[in-house]
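Practice problem 4.
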């Protein structure tokens, strides 16, 4: 029986075995979207006609005895900064409504569909991805399914809402400073931010070219691995990943973690955030039988460098829009971009110089350990519209600081799995970052799979 709790791998197996049609799997997803989306506001477009044609083609292929892909019949949706043929690529903005429809799907959309998945629509997001809250003044906030009065996290808020509510078992997001990991944490999902350059960004609306990553959000580690494998591979249209060969991980998930050197991030990552956040990290460490602690050098300055790079490079991308349509931006986004245009060039040069130093120090650290555990967000989901939060007795802005723990990792492109702490009955979700060395996604996924298999990490649709 396929329902809102079903995982992508379960749906695909049932479709391949003839126990379920792709058309029926799609019907369940579309029905859930119809009933849940009006209250939760995850979708900005539903591509039902396209999806039905795709499902019918998959069912026909199975009836003809053809081999189906690893994601056969799995409904998925994408943050609306991914190109979807026939839709304007909104990137959460009012301005992009006036853009012509995309002529082709983004590379990752094409790859998921080649693996048998079925695109059902485009998802709400923070304007131009400059957001950690999931709130959007043009399209309304995407709401947290665990408490619709709370934030879903951003900027991939619609992606988090859609998966956590059971509208789809798989969604794609982007992560420049934490926009996959923050909503994964606040909505109780597994999310993967791959190594910078691992997955093609071709056909996605950019935010910061030096920091942008794309990746999946799901309710199981197997689903993360299946979708990740389907999307891997060189792409000459994206020079960052053009030469990197695929390294499949799905078959290795249960290889075990014996011999892996796992540590908890100390210092910057331990000194901030609510106690329950650190309880989650401690529970993961206990389950993995590690008491080792390491200090990520200069993580705070790494975050500062990410801020400068984000503000300046993001502002430069939108320079012409700021000149001609400044009043059509979210004021909070516009003002940060305007500030970025006024920062001196040597700040950007110094930020990149420090980033390279910081990256080298992290590389040295990964000679000592294989995996680092750290909080994903400094607290559970704030209320929608909440401007300030108190952390360690200090009042600070919500929008800027939900990425307190994710930005230092994005700055140097490390692969991370965000995993939901399971011991949260009756409480809002919270997640933990499982961080690996560059190109070592397999290790982070194996650790997440171990935690999932023993029940300390788990996600559940609402």
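Answer key:
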């Amino acid at each position: 029986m396929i329902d809102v709790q079903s995982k992508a791998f379960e749906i695909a197996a049932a479709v391949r075995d003839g126990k379920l049609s792709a058309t029926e799997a799609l019907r369940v997803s579309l029905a859930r979207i119809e009933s849940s989306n009006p209250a939760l506001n995850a979708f900005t477009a539903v591509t039902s006609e396209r999806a039905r044609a795709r499902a019918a083609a998959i069912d026909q292929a199975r009836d003809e005895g053809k081999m189906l892909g690893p994601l056969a019949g799995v409904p998925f949706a994408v943050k609306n900064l991914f190109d979807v043929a026939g839709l304007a690529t909104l990137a959460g903005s009012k301005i992009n409504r006036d853009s012509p429809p995309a002529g082709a799907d983004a590379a990752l959309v094409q790859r998921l569909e080649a693996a048998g998945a079925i695109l059902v629509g485009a998802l709400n997001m923070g304007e131009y991805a400059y957001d950690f809250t999931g709130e959007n003044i043009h399209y309304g906030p995407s709401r947290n399914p665990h408490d619709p009065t709370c934030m879903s996290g951003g900027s991939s808020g619609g992606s988090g809402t859609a998966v956590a509510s059971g509208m789809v078992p798989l969604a794609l997001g982007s992560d420049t400073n934490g926009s996959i990991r923050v909503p994964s944490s606040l909505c109780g999902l597994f999310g993967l931010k791959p190594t910078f350059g691992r997955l093609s960004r071709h056909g996605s609306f950019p935010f910061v070219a030096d920091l942008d990553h794309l990746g999946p959000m799901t309710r199981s580690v197997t689903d993360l691995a299946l979708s990740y494998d389907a999307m891997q591979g060189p792409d000459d249209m994206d020079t960052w990943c053009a030469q990197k060969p695929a390294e499949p991980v799905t078959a290795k998930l249960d290889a075990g973690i014996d011999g892996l050197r796992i540590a908890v991030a100390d210092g910057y990552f331990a000194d901030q955030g609510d106690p329950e956040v650190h309880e989650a990290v401690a529970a993961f460490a206990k389950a993995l039988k590690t008491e080792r602690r390491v200090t990520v050098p200069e993580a705070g300055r790494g975050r500062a460098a990410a801020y400068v790079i984000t503000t300046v490079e993001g502002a430069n991308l939108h320079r012409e829009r700021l000149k001609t349509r400044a009043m059509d931006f979210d004021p909070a986004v516009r003002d940060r971009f305007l500030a970025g245009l006024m920062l001196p060039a040597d700040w950007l040069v110094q930020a990149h110089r420090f980033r390279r130093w910081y990256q080298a120090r992290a590389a040295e650290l990964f000679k000592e350990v294989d995996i680092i555990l750290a909080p994903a967000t400094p607290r559970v989901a704030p209320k929608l519209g909440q401007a300030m939060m108190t952390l360690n007795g200090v009042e600070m802005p919500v929008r800027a600081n939900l990425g307190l723990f994710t930005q230092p990792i994005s700055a140097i492109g490390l692969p991370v799995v965000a995993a939901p702490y399971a011991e949260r009955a009756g409480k809002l979700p919270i997640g933990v970052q499982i961080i690996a060395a560059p190109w070592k996604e397999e290790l982070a996924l194996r650790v997440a799979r171990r935690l999932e298999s023993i029940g300390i990490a788990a996600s559940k649709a609402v």
